[in-house]
Amino acid sequence: MISWILILLWCGSLVPYISAHDDDIHTVKYTVDNFSSEVRKKHHFIMFYAPWCGHCQRLAPTWEQLAEMLNEDDSHIRIAKVDCTTDAKICSEQDITGYPTLKFFKTGEQEPIRFRGTRDLPTLTTFINEQLRQGEESPPVVASQQSPLRELNEENFDSTIETGKTFIKFYAPWCGFCQRLAPTWLELAKAFEFNDEIVIAKIDCTEYKAICSNHDIKGYPTLLWFENGQKVAKYSGDRSLEDLKNYVNQMSGDRKAETTSEEFHKEAENDEPVMELLAEQFNEEIKSGLTFVDFYSPWCGHCKRLAPTWEQLGKKFQGKNAVKIGKVDCTVTDNREFCNEQEIEAFPSLFLYKDGQKISEYNGNRELDDLLEFINKHLPHDEL
């Protein structure tokens, strides 16, 4: 009898904690009534928790940020949670023995994948990235042995570009522009399938980072033309099949490549209005002048909406040494610890650096004029 009284008193003490968790706006909450049916519809990343659990309470704001980023109508994934004190049947079936337990449910697969890493935002988004890349992010256009589209890796990259002409797509599986280009790129490869002098290829920069870094890849997709082992040109035109075919025909004609490697690197730098920064070269890039940096996650809806404006902002200061516009993908393995050190708690986070030192965080409207006004306030008058 006494034990039941203690249990009732203990449960009564949970009321404020349950209310606090119910304040979440973006996180989907599942119960025994809808868990099984909903989990089958999309990929899910689910937190199994108890409201009284201190670790759960500390994770709750980060989980809500993750949900705000990813729980959009057109998203293929849902960020959700299950309260094990009210829906114990679900947690028993999922063999939940501690709180919080985080599991990733892939559509079409019986067993979920348990997350065992640190529970910060960059690590969680990287985990999601890895799970999705293993599934639907590898579209059916991936080259097979019979495919005219050459899949490049560490073993065959150098030998492929060594002779002849090679047109390469440098991409990341999570990149929306890359996904939209994928079927067109395959059709381009089919169009030149029987031309022995031309190879249409692609390389996944999330798998082969060193190769992409060696070729100064700062954005996705990047389309580069190689001749006899030398990088000759970067394609920056429209990405329709007709435009790409015309470009290949033009480049493969009787023409001498007049662009030297040094000229190409200089041209490529000028072509990129926004620098893609990695932790290892971050301090070197921001050591002088003003640098405005977008710390982002590729899956973040707010980040995706900001991306075209950020590109426009970069173009406004392109070629001006006093101001650089950069971005850091916090889901990249090499950047995760760095983003934690920079105290990135939400995406996107916009920080302004001056001569290597962080001087301000931008929290205003993300329209182009507002961003320009913010930068100009920090510029010396003679540089306006």
From TrEMBL:
Q: Which UniProt keywords apply?
A: Redox-active center, Repeat, Signal
Question: According to the UniProt entry, where is the signal peptide?
Answer: 1-20
Write down any Gene Ontology CC term.
Answer: cytoplasm
Domain Thioredoxin: start-end pairs: 9-130, 132-253, 255-380
Q: What sections of the protein cross the membrane?
A: none
Tell me if Transferase is a UniProt keyword of this record.
Answer: no
Give the highest taxon in the source lineage: Eukaryota
The cross-references to PANTHER family, in alphabetical order and at most eight, read: PROTEIN DISULFIDE-ISOMERASE C17H9.14C-RELATED, THIOREDOXIN DOMAIN-CONTAINING PROTEIN 5
Q: Which family does it belong to?
A: Belongs to the protein disulfide isomerase family.
Name of the protein in question: Thioredoxin domain-containing protein
Q: Which organism does this sequence originate in?
A: Hypothenemus hampei (Coffee berry borer)
